[in-house]
Amino acid sequence: MLGGVLLFEQRFVHVVGITFTALILTENLMVAVEVKRWHPFMLLAQVLTMLVYVASLVALSSPMLLDATFDLPFILTVEFAWRVALLTAASTVPVWIGKVFTHYCAPTYAAKIAS
């Protein structure tokens, strides 16, 4: 959230949309990174999470709301997409690098035997 506020000094509604979308994507990516064997229900849960999020974006950006939480026209821009991608990468890439580093420094027994 702090990165979103510092990097993107726009309307507060835009900062909320960018940081919340980055949070949802980061959480889904972290789940995907940790899962070793996928079950169809796990994939369904990931897809449903994204569908519910998209539905909430549409519902909470309704022009009938006086204080719309999201700005749907802004969310559909390339500017929004690259900012979300930047924040998501900033929060997931260090974790992935740490996992790779840990794998090389402390490999599993199966990896030790195979090499």
Helix content: over 70%
Strand content: under 5%
Mean pLDDT: 84
SSE series = HHHHHH
Low-pLDDT segments: none
Describe the protein in words:
- The chain has 115 residues and is mainly α.
- The protein has one domain (2-114).
- It contains 6 helices and no strands.
- The chain has helices at 2-7, 12-34, 40-60, 72-75, 78-105, 109-114.
- Helix 2 packs antiparallel against helix 3 (40-60) and helix 2 runs parallel beside helix 5 (78-105).
- The longest helix has 28 residues, at 78-105.
- The radius of gyration is 18 Å and the shape is elongated.
- The mean pLDDT is 84.
In short, what is this structure?
Helices cover 77% and strands 0% of the residues. The protein is built from six helices and no strands.
Give the SSE layout.
Blueprint: H1 2-7, H2 12-34, H3 40-60, H4 72-75, H5 78-105, H6 109-114
List the keywords.
single chain; 115 residues; mainly alpha; 0% strand
